[in-house]
Amino acid sequence: MSMNEKLALFGGEPAVQTDDQEMFRWPIITGDDEAAALDVLRKGSMSGTDVTLQFENEFAAWLKLDYALAFNTGTAAIHAAMYGCGIGVGDEIICPSLTYWASALQVFSLGGTPVFADVEADTLNIDPADIEHRITERTKAIIVVHYIGYPADMDRIMEIARRHNLRVIEDVSHAQGGLYKGRKLGTIGDVGAMSLMTGKSFAIGEGGILVTGDRSIYERAVAFGHYERFGANIVSAELKPLAGLPLGGYKYRMHQISSAVGRVQLKHYERRIAEIDKAMNYFWDQLEDVPGIRAHRPPGGSGCTMGGWYSPHGFYISEQLEGLSITRFCEALQAEGAAGCYPGCNLPLHLHPVFHEADIYRHGQPTRIANSARDVRLEAGSLDVTENVIVRVFAIPWFKHYRTDIIDEYVRAFRKVTANYKELLAQDAGNPARMGQWNLSAPVADRR
Ligand SMILES: *Cc1c(COP(=O)(O)O)cnc(C)c1O
């Protein structure tokens, strides 16, 4: 194909011609998932725990950990992980601001507060070099998010945590099945917790799961959200006398249609994400030499992988295309048929009013102040990488199958747009004042 071919934005033929929704459909649901869900409905065991216990055992065995505890959302699983780590009134947790709110916001209800750290420009994960100076005597834990699938620098983070006697909670919502130096994500910190909701790469419907090798974290998590299991099996002398009622008043049990589907999904998961990994790496391999864009993936041979490539993004390097805005760049890609390409990712949590002025529990002052011995609020300009990432990253197609004929069409779209970028400069209106969202789903207007 001639790279001088007319851009679709200006009336040329779009590079992507095949509209095969099977390439993007997720999760993959077969007759086995349907039968498992129907079985739960027909037995009327939606609120039971028999299927969920089996799912937990299989999930724990998959990760080679002693304990897995299922929840009705990832939000709940992370909440319980915080409680499991003993986080309480006045405590601080250090976490990235570039993430979904449920990595951190629940800590308010335990009487604690998040302290936000910046992320690394090339991985988008919490920057180990920005953690230590934020640690005080109130710091209890570091929350690590393997952001959009990229494994965080666990060796450096664990070293800091051990030196300061902090717990490490891995939020694996974006990276189930991913590896850090050959080790499964979620098994390296003290506890892993994650969403399994439908939009994620391990997708079973609303649901979440906590995994740990630490009996005391597991028991506290049971006591927090699973009153019906908070009984004779608890060995902790502190918890035992309180058995029967949930500590804090939450009921977080997983719906058994979710756990039934989860059992089926788990059987196929490694094979399915291996195909995604092959497809996504093939896509980026074709684009290595293209100016203006760069893959967000760990270097080959590092033993680190992207798991199921949840919500994959690429970096945009505007300087290499004479300052062409990412907005204009994505418009051109969309016109070529790459509908899922739009700018930005999560907005920075540290700038949201909930972390500045909201008085959620009627303390008579902002919760962020009431829950902390000091003012940990951060103004605009505090976290450089996080605040500027919105014009540096864009969503790319999330291929579920290794179909090189179709992937090649998308590769062609990217090559065509970058090769003809000069034509886009003329009518480039720049980026709008507001970009990105609080979650990672496609902006409503662009949703396919
Ligand atoms: C989705 C998500 C959660 C929350 O999970 P839910 O199942 O939606 O409650 C937590 N952390 C991150 C990083 C997420 O993307």
Summarize it.
This protein is an alpha/beta fold and 448 residues long. The protein has helices at 31-43, 50-63, 74-84, 154-163, 215-225, 256-285, 326-335, 367-370, 384-388, 404-419, 421-425; strands spanning 67-71, 92-96, 113-117, 139-145, 167-171, 179-180, 183-184, 191-195, 208-212, 293-295, 313-316, 393-395.
Please give a structural write-up.
By secondary structure, the chain is of the alpha/beta class. The chain has a domain at 31-264: Aspartate Aminotransferase, domain 2 (3-Layer(aba) Sandwich), CATH 3.40.640.10. It has 11 helices and 12 strands. It has helices spanning 31-43, 50-63, 74-84, 154-163, 215-225, 256-285, 326-335, 367-370, 384-388, 404-419, 421-425; strands at 67-71, 92-96, 113-117, 139-145, 167-171, 179-180, 183-184, 191-195, 208-212, 293-295, 313-316, 393-395. The strands form 3 sheets. A 7-stranded mixed β-sheet has the order 1-9-8-5-4-2-3, sandwiched between helices. A hairpin with a 2-residue loop joins strand 6 (179-180) and strand 7 (183-184). Helix 1 runs antiparallel to helix 6. It is globular, with a radius of gyration of 23 Å. The protein starts with 30 loop residues before the first helix and ends in a 23-residue tail after the last helix. The mean pLDDT is 96. The site of pyridoxal-5'-phosphate has 15 residues, from helix 3.
